[in-house]
Amino acid sequence: MIPVKTESAWRGTSDCRKCGIRDMVLFANLNEHDFAQMHVPIDDLELSQGSFLYTEGSPAQSVFTVRAGMLKLVRSTLDGRQRIVRVLRCGDVIGLEALATTHYDCDAVALTQVAVCRIPLGVIQKLSSGSGRLLSQLMLKWQQTLKDADDWLADLNFGTARQRVGNLVLKMRNPDNGEIAMLFSREDMGAMLDLKLETVSREISRLVREGSIEPLDKQGRIYRVCHPDRLRLT
To answer: What is the pTM for the complete model shown?
Structure first.
């Protein structure tokens, strides 16, 4: 798969002050004076499913906020396997390692149609030096990122296959509607849970047969969570 050049996905300059999810992202606490200090535009990007936002080891020059859709972070293991280490959704900040290192730690790949904002490091450095508000928000996002990574590791990489799949379904529930969970390909789920594709398919089918979840589309990506308590006890 050939990584997409983000220049080809450019859709214009974002107006951060009018952003519909501003309260969820880095610029939540900024005021008019802070926005006036931005001399480099924030790019609005759209990526199709399967496109790369950036690749592991590529130069880290920007931080991104997810406006819509889902992305996966993929890291290569020493034996050449690929593991999905986390899924990011609307409001998440991605590429924070750019603030501390010169290269990205993972591949960032679109699981669905994705919209992101690309924030050049120069913007963050400028605002951080002049506004404690952005620095405070950055620290909150960084802390949340670390917590999310710990939670993913604890919930999805230990226990039986049933427990891992059940926990993943719970984690993928829509924040605005806890009855709906959006999953992705069985192959991707296996890479995340360290399970074989056949095992993931078998466990999803079992949950459907037992009535714990109900499929809402023909592709097997969207489910209604009928009994979350059963998923926690699998």
So the answer is: 0.71
